[in-house]
Design a protein that fits this description.
Blueprint lengths: L2 E6 L5 H11 L6 E8 L5 H8 L4 E3 L8 H15 L3 E4 L8 H7 L3 E5 L11 H8 L3 E8 L9 E8 L6 H24 L3 E4 L2 E4 L2 E2 L5 E6 L2 E4 L4
Parallel strand pairs: 1-2, 1-4, 2-3, 4-5, 7-11
Antiparallel strand pairs: 5-6, 6-7, 8-9, 9-10, 11-12
Helix pairs in contact: 1-6
The structure holds 5-O-phosphono-beta-D-ribofuranosylamine (GRF).
Length: 226
């Protein structure tokens, strides 16, 4: 049976594009993107979805009085899509605990840092300010704590001398485009199970920072430390 997934995105949609190419369009992957939902009318992600022939819906947060009203329509829309998995890809709204619990445990997000370091915004500037030699991205299960759910996988990239936040962000983003489709492919293949009692990959509990990779020759290469 094929996995169905929906993507929530607020903006540019480059991770969505990677998921279209690396999961939805791949004949060897049993997974189908059944819809994309955005909270912003002008989101490029909506255009990417339509170009891929995928249902695209905008639920404009600004048209709702409060988060509860917005989330009620968002939840109904997502339930209408009937997706097995919700994939947050640059969705810039903090979801309420009630919303997360409604769709848990099958909700994942990608965050541009090596969690649990640097949850929240402006990650790249904070990595540079601390003088870290490495940064990266994490795919994690979504729980009510923002960027706090169990980490499933990480991709590590070097910080170079002379990096500014934009250059580091571009390096991390390119690595995200490798990592996110890989994790969804694991779920589609039944290798990664998002159970109520925590995620398991290949039958094993994941380490704190999930399965770790670096990008080598444009492919993911496992890091021994994982
Ligand atoms: C990515 O950096 C992702 O890690 C973060 O939001 C950004 C989304 O970029 N959660 P895009 O819209 O996928 O291009």
């Amino acid at each position: 049976m094929s996995l169905t997934f929906a993507v929530l995105a607020s903006g540019r949609g480059s991770n969505l594009e990677a998921l279209v190419e690396g999961v939805h369009r791949r004949p060897d992957v049993a997974a189908e993107l059944v819809g994309v939902v955005s909270d912003r009318p002008g989101a490029q992600a909506l255009a990417i979805a339509r170009a891929a022939g995928v249902s695209a819906a905008c639920i404009d947060r600004k048209r709702f009085e409060d988060r509860d009203a917005f989330e009620a329509v968002l939840a109904a829309t997502l339930e209408g899509l009937g997706a097995d998995l919700l994939v947050l890809a640059g969705f810039m709204r903090v979801l309420s605990a009630a919303f997360v619990r409604r769709f848990a445990p099958a909700v994942i997000n990608i965050h541009p840092s090596l969690l649990p370091d640097f949850p929240g915004l402006d990650t790249h500037a904070r990595v540079l300010a601390r003088g870290d030699a490495e940064s990266g991205a994490s795919v994690h299960q979504v729980t009510p704590e923002v960027d706090g759910g169990p980490v499933l996988a990480q991709v590590v990239v070097p910080v170079h001398a002379g990096d500014d936040p934009e250059r580091l962000a571009a390096r991390v983003l390119a690595a995200e485009h490798r990592l996110y489709p890989e994790v969804v492919r694991w779920i589609a293949a039944g290798r990664l199970v998002l159970g109520d009692d925590g995620p398991r990959l290949d039958g094993r509990t994941l380490p704190l920072r999930g399965r770790r990779f670096r990008v080598s020759d444009d492919a993911l290469e496992p890091l021994c430390a994982s």
